[in-house]
Amino acid sequence: MSINLIIFSGLALVMVIAALFAVTSSKIMRATTLLLFVLFGTAGLYFMLHYSFLGAVQITVYAGGIVVLLIFVVLLLGKGSVDVTQTSMRRYMAGTATALTGMVLAIYLITSTDFAGDKFTAEDVTMKELGMSLMGTEKYNYILPFEVMSVLLLACTVGAILIARKK
Amino acid sequence: MEQSIFILILPLLSFLVLALAGKKMPHKLAGTIGTLSLAATAILACATAAEYFAAGRNGAAQFTDIMPYNIAWLPLNDTLSIDMGILLSPISAMMLIVITVISLMVHIYSLGYMKGERGFQRYYAFLSLFTFSMLGLVVATNIFQMYIFWELVGVSSYLLIGFYYTKPAAIAASKKAFIVTRFADLFFLIGILIYGYYTGTFSFTPTETAIAAAGTVLPTALMLMFIGGAGKSAMFPLHIWLPDAMEGPTPVSALIHAATMVVAGVYLVARMFPLFVVHAPEVLHAIAYIGAFTALYAAVVACVQTDIKRVLAFSTISQIAFMMVALGVCTSTDPHEGGLGYMASMFHLFTHAMFKGLLFLGAGAIIHAVHSNEKNHMGGLRKYMPITHITFLIACLAIAGIPPFSGFFSKDEIITACYGFSTPMGLFMSGVAAMTAFYMFRLYYLIFWGKSHYAEQVELYKAGKIVEEPHKPHEAPAAMTIPLVFLAAVTCVAGFIPFGEFVSSNGEAYTIHLDSTIAINSTLLAIGGILLATVMYATGNSRITRVVNVVMHEPIKAAYHRFYLDEVWLFITKKVIFNCISRPIAWFDRNVVDASLDLMARAAQRLGTLVRPLQSGNIQTYCIYFLSGALAIMLVLLYIY
Amino acid sequence: MNMLILFIIIPIVMLPALWACRKEAQVRAVMVTGSTLLLLLSAWLTVDFISCRNAGNNDIMLYTASWPWYEKLNIALSVGVDGISVAMLLLTSVIVFTGVFASWRIRPMAKEFFLWYTLLSVGVYGFFVSTDLFTMFMFYETALIPMYLLIGVWGSGKKEYSAMKLTLMLMGGSAFLLMGILGIYFGSGATTMNIHEIAAMNNIPTATQYIFFPLTFIGFGVLGALFPFHTWSPDGHASAPTSVSMLHAGVLMKLGGYGCFRIAMYLMPQAASDLAWIFIILTTISVVYGALSAISQTDLKYINAYSSVSHCGLVLFAILMMTKTACTGAILQMLSHGLMTALFFAIIGMIYGRTHTRDIKQMRGLMKIMPFLAVGYVIAGLANLGLPGFSGFVAEMTVFAGAFEVNDTFHRTVTIIACTSIVITAVYILRVVGRILYGEPENEEHKKLSDATWDERFTIICLVICVAAIGIAPMWVSSLIADGTGNVLANMFP
Amino acid sequence: MTIPAEYMLILSAVLFFIGVFGFFTRRNLVSLLICTELMLNAVDINFAVFNAYCHPDRLEGYIFSLFGIGVAAAETAVAIAIIINVYRNVHSIHIKRLKNLKH
Predict the structure, then answer these.
(1) Do chains C and A touch (3 or more CB pairs under 8 A)?
(2) What pTM does this model have?
(3) Higher pLDDT pick, D22 / B615
């Protein structure tokens, strides 16, 4: 058992347990905090893939931005944010059944499929390479999505302000 | 003959004017318009008839039919079309005179009778409409035109019977009259359709080939047509509407339900007479038997009625039946060889129109005077109403068949014709004629003789038994007496008209000659009937009457209720048709036909309710469905590949 | 410019005009102008058509034109008229025109009412001028849909139920119809949608006809109140507002008869002659059954609705007899029934607007209170029971005479059974007349009511004139129609 | 020694379906948002993994993950704005109360 596998197992365990508690906890604050663990775990995975920039973005945007926002809103809403009512048993069962079926199906598919190749090289993507790819205009360059993304973010900002604004 | 079109146009115009603008007119003006136009029509009709008869006979010494107008009104197919036109023939010329004269008299009479009535203008409008339709009926060039005007006559009769539309009895009577005759007309229509289909024409006189083509169907068609005629002419058992029709104003009864419309059936048979007598003699004889029975039945019922108009109504039924019998007993078109009945029937139609019109108008005058139809409110009126009394007496004598009044001559011809057919028929009709004399004089005595109801009332009033001062009967105004006198005069002299010269079964001149045996016999019988009536009723409540009333209690009661035919009619219409057919059908429609469709709708709705929870609006549920669906599809795909 | 297309354009132009209106007076002005134009147009069309015929133009259809629409499916907007369509267009114009006056004081939302009303008339006009299966169907649907809103919004009583029922049943009918139309189209080789071209080819296999003739006939028959698919009619008519009842019973139900004749019978003659007996039995039942049901109804509109079932049954009955006279009679009956029943519904609506009841047991002596309406009712009644001098008589007689031309026991028997309806009609008409118009007024409230207003009088007078005109001088309209029916039948049985 | 791609994918699948499960069963808008984040996160992992294991010479998956994170951020911002607004109007963020949009 290599060290990588051990780290991965540890991360996976933490993520799954945190995720499970996050979706079942009746306290939102707790759920949000647990979500943070999942997000960190994900960042860890990215690092393991040697996608360090992605991992960094994951931590800054998700952990630094989104979770903070969530916590902020949970605090803002106070009591209203408590999940008071219990879900009906039927829905619980249906949800579990569907999720489990889906999971089993997905795992079955993943294990039974032979992916095209296992060319993992453990090389970091350089910032220059990434920057060229994001800003380039040739094939496999993504200036247009990048710009669309920026517009989307702008729209979101404006929209969020507009929606949350007091009448 | 071209002027003949105005005979139709004038009454129609007068109807339109009165119907559209009548409401704004003063009564006098409306009455004048109606009467004047009718007077003009009468003059034209007489002139036309005179011209027609003056034009003389053709080479075969027969009057020919003249058709001054005939247009294709509604083409049906290549061969058949409904025509409209004017046909002049001896009988239509005769009918023109009868209708216009009686109608004119009724118009004049109504000026007095209907004075001040609400709806006076409407009344005159309807009268004009009726006259128009009746004239159209008699001048019809073909059977379908006749049917068209037949219906119009029916509706004007309906409107006039229901003239007092606030009176429930009048409403019921008008409805009944229309529906019963309409029912009969259904057969008439089917008869016409059969006739038209097989002979290829609606004409009264189809060609020999057409008749041959129709073959055995022709008698059926003619029988069906006769049923239509029986409805209008109140033959048993379709007569039930006529007595009730007396709910209309009395002049209307005189015009429509005594003199003109009710003889339409007779006229119809006479119109089709050549076909009947040659191709369907058995139908003709059936008509004779139906007529004979009706005559007897009506006479019996007339003997016990207390409402004077009803007595007259039943006497009308009886007299029309006489005409039918006269037509029915014909065996050939030759008046000398068994075709006498045709002439006799038409003659009787003519004289009957006059004296029955007179009787009704007289009755109207009486009702006008005493404000009641019931015999109990009359009696002893001869002192108060001399003119009415005399004219009424003349009419009674005429209808009873006492020479020299017109009824004697025509009825005598009928009875001669009956004897020519068979002796039992002759004897039977003589008997009915005697009954006629009896019930008419019963009526006469009850009205004009006996103890005065007014006098009784006055006594009671003086004794303080009744509060209201009785209304004194008075003679009718001039507008009413003039028609009475005129018609009485006609009744006196009409018997001497050489009627056979104008109308006979084959169009040739026929000289009326009285068979002295029959004449004397029937006169004696009539006098016998009158004497019996005198004994029983002249002095009011005689002993014989009382005895008869006691002995014959049950039959009299049955006859008074017209042998319960009206109850049967009511039972059939109200109970059977309404409750046993119409109601169940309506129920069936709502609860079976409609319900089955509703059931389908409800089933669809149920189905909708079943799947409705799927569409709860809950996004989470949708997500579950969505994912489950996607998973299911994936599983299926996995299973397949 | 084709004259016929104007029949579609004028109402379509009226729609935005109505939309733009702000005041009720403007709405009325638009409606009166538009419907008057249509009336004049159809009058002119009639005159022009007759003069064309007199000039010796013997084409089956006059004023034909065709604009391709969707060429892959051979769909075109083809128009053309023969005597039958001309008569129907005239009828439609009269009813639309008088309907405007009958709903002169409609409240609330007069503008919206007239918008739907005009849309409805677009459908009806379009249906009568088209000669293309698809466009006919399209216009047919256009005519049906507004009915739902017109009844559902402006109706009375159980209006939602009735509107839903009516729409569902008629839509069910059009589902059949659509199948029938597709069957005809593909059965004839899918080369054209034009009914005359299909008829001329006459190549639909008999087996196909056996399937699609009943479908098409029932599809149209639902609208023509064919037993047992007539039950929408009493409820629908009872709930509909006056002018909608008029238009619906007067014109829309005629779409059924017209379609049965023009599409079902014309295009599938073999099946029509072989299967006619089934439908003859159904229509005979309609005729007698409708009349008998009417006797025991107590709601004025129900009585008239059942009477319509009876009379429209007679239309289909006559069509199925397949003789020229009977078919002419059928079209005459459509014309006559359209006018009469519109008159009836107009008057009933006016009476209802005053007394707020249609129960005949609660009304009495209306003749004294509102003589004009009462006289109108009597006239309508007399016309309905087939009094000579009114259109009903002419139509019925032509139908019966035509039906009698078929010489076999079955046809004879059903004809005689159908004939009995004229007696039954008299019974229910006179029952109502005697019950509500005659007698002394009993209800104190009713005594205060007023007689007809000028617009109501105008409506009634217009319709009475039309009914009487056909009744008094039937030859011109009869020959106009006979021209069309003759051609159709000649094509069916060459 | 590298971890097999399958392990990573299985982990992401598990995370994803945990998110799905949560999305089905939670009744609170914020919780739902958290579940959505979980699912998005799982998707991002998949992109990255496929990129790394199948086409390490290209950057589609990488960039897509990057954008995915960006979109998630945007989505969260808007969602939270909506939640706040909803709360302000109905004083609850419980989805049972949020029925006004249906009609």
Answers:
(1) no
(2) 0.81
(3) D22
